[in-house]
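Mods, move this if it's the wrong board.
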Amino acid sequence: MSDPTHLSRRERQILNVLHELGSATVAVVQSKLPDPPTDMAVRRLMHILEEKGHAKRTGKDGREVIYAPAQSKARAGLQALRQVLDTFFGGAVDEALAAHLTRKDASLSDEQAERIQQLINAAKKEGR
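Not the wrong board. Structure tokens:
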């Protein structure tokens, strides 16, 4: 699959629609886009996303092709997160978390702190 950071704004918008809906025709995707382009432009972008490996054809609804994301939103998110960690933090999760938590507008609820601690404890226990 192509690097998710190499998607245009419109390609990302289309993928967001596909992830939100699970699958959709060009007409449905077009109706969900802000300031929607022509249907031919959306068709072309869907084809580009398919060529890049981000979307796939899953069937037909009459004459319309139904598209779906090639991978789950969670998996795509993890891939994007790995890319950000590698690019900006040398793969160091602690540096990324520290950068987030030291922002002036950062907030961390007691529940979030507890969840993070539980994840750290579980990772230690499993030897990760």
